[in-house]
Predict the structure.
Amino acid sequence: MSFENIFGSGGSEANSAGQSAESLDKDTPGAGDVSEAVRKLESERDPWLVRQTAHGAFDVMGFLTPLFQKINETSAGQRQVAENPGSTSAMASSTLKASGPPRPSIGDEDMPKLEDLSKLIGNRRGFALITTGLGTSEGLAVDPSQDTAYVADRSGVKLSAVKISTGAQRVVASGLGDIGDVKLDGKGKAYTTDYAAGRLLAVNLSGGTSSVVAAVPGAYGLALDGAGKAYVVSHSEGKLTAVDLQSGQKTTVAAGLPVGIAAVALDGKGKAYVGQKDHGGNLYEVNLADGAKRLVTNLPGASAMRVELTGDGKAYAIDHLNGRLYEITLADGAQRVVASGLATCEGLALDTANGQIYVSNRESQLWQISQRATQPLGGVGKVVA
């Protein structure tokens, strides 16, 4: 249907309605000489009822006729605009010439504050190299309240503390053996594994002294439950063992896991997630109550060297074979690479409160990656110094 038909039809209908209203106004008794006709009607019926109906009807008829006339005129105007849009454009052009082009005004209150600019500049990249010279790192933990990362150096058998904001570092403890992982209890102690000697160690962070908690053959990956237990994975035996940190008593939680497991993370709801470093790159979910396991996902051609949970149904895992950081959905095993270029990465820690991910590698580097930057499809891309 054309614009002409639409607006022409509308105008015609309005004109017809107007004519009907005009005829009704002329032909209705009392419409011409209201007072005389009304008096005649009122003599036969209830005067009050007639006055109400008759006067109201006459008022409505007096309103309808000009209304329909306005609709007819409006419809004609709409038709003209539709058939000749150039007239509207000309009118707009004329108005613009009369008033001039828009002149935006920007005052001091509209300008970005210096502190906002500083934040933008500081966050222009989703990653930062904090420091180097940390030896062959195979374990990492962070204490955001102290602005400190603790990096385990396997080749130097030592544990270093790194100031996150400045990169300054110092040795906290040495002589820790074939150190594979480190976790903090939040009470002034760190716990580390000694793979070669098959030990779980407790390290006093203020004095640097260490002591053996329990013998765990092939001890490698480590997690603390915050309630007095450590969970240790045996890389060489494919076992998950719970260790009481006070008594050193051990309980086998799950056996029959693949040889080559290297990581363990706890969800606080009775499940552990175990990552496989060698021979498959699988991530398993283990029920702490009965040791039952299920395969969550496989990282093709990769490893699940370390695993950390975000608390919202997702996990991060590092692939030391290809220097990549993965994001994994635990419910269905969906995965994607969110950062690459991390070299032979073997340490992973999260600061979910501040949205930061920390990665250390055998090339003695410590990286900070914004968790927010990993969210867009593709993540932060390649991490470069």
Notes: Residues 125-382 form a domain with the Neuraminidase fold (CATH 2.120.10.30). Helices lie at 3-27, 34-42, 47-83, 85-99, 114-122. The first strand starts at residue 127 and ends at 131.
